[in-house]
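Hi V.,

Quick status before I head out on leave. The structure for the redesign project is tokenized and pasted below; the design run finished overnight.
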């Protein structure tokens, strides 16, 4: 009887080990995952192998001599503060834990999806700070908060595992602009400095050429070939409703589109020369739209409405 109990105990231990192996990756517990665990993939680097910037330093726009006019920046104006985050810095770190007049904000960038987004990092009464998990879902960055170890999917801005599962972060409006244009609009802007605390070659893009091929490094759960995978789009999502404006469609317009989203009027502004677009409400306020590759947007929002320019 004792031998049988011992054998049963051993089997239970082995079974538990097997379950753990299936429901844990990079040290994260996936047992509460809201997405299929088989779709959560290791991107290569371990947890924190891509170092988030936790103590960002900024310089005045006039002193950002390390930027070329054509360098793309992620621009954010919040709490009266304008800041530019150079993509060639973000591509090496993916996350910046920042503060805007005392409010915690997380600035994020996923090189595989081309998506730069910013969120308020306060959930309820809890302030969060984030790291890079080394995991991906739909080829998109999964970040984690250090307070609860929950994993957050970047494009939806939603926690998919852990204590925070199902919680959404408040998205903040950002724009992608060449440095010269951002500096023209916000000459008093602060700029993320190259003094990041990490030894990286910010003059080199480790993903150079990725945007010019159809190749994906990691699979996505859903795909659509109406546009090539790396076609730029601008998307809006709210309360289960999503709509996307592909740049090839916007290129057929005069650069300004009067449209609607979720029953409300929106204005889409497109600049072909700078390959940028932005969404605004009827009062001209910038909306939290997402600039992304077509494959990335469709992977999360396969039921999205797609804008088509009139012939």
């Amino acid at each position: 009887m004792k031998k049988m109990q011992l054998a049963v105990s051993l089997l239970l231990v082995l079974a538990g080990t097997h379950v753990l192996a299936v429901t844990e990756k990079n040290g994260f517990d996936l047992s509460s995952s809201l997405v299929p665990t088989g779709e959560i993939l290791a991107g290569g680097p371990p947890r924190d192998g891509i170092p988030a910037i936790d103590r960002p330093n900024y310089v005045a726009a006039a002193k950002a001599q390390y930027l070329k006019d054509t360098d793309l920046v992620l621009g954010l104006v919040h709490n009266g503060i304008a800041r530019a985050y150079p993509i060639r810095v973000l591509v090496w770190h993916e996350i910046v834990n920042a503060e805007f007049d005392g409010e915690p904000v997380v600035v994020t960038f996923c090189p595989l999806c081309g998506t730069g987004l910013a969120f308020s990092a306060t959930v309820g009464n809890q302030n969060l700070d984030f790291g890079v998990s080394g995991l991906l879902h739909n080829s998109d960055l999964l970040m984690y908060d250090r307070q609860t170890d929950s994993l957050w999917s970047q494009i939806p801005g939603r926690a998919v595992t852990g204590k925070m599962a199902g919680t959404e972060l408040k998205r903040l409006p950002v724009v992608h602009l060449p440095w010269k244009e951002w500096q023209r609009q916000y000459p008093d802007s602060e700029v993320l400095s190259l003094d990041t605390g990490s030894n990286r070659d910010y003059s080199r893009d480790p993903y150079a050429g990725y945007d010019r091929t159809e190749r994906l490094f990691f699979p996505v759960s859903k795909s659509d070939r109406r546009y090539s995978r790396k076609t730029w789009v601008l998307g809006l999502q709210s309360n289960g409703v999503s709509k996307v404006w592909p740049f090839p469609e916007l290129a057929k317009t005069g650069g300004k589109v009067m449209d609607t989203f979720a029953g409300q009027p929106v204005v889409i502004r497109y600049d072909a020369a700078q390959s940028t677009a932005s969404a605004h409400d009827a009062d001209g306020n910038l909306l939290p739209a997402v600039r992304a590759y077509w494959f990335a947007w469709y992977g999360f929002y396969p039921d999205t409405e797609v804008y088509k320019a009139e012939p």
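Above is the designed sequence. The CA atoms of residues 73 and 87 lie 5 Å apart.

G. will cover questions while I'm gone.

Best,
W.
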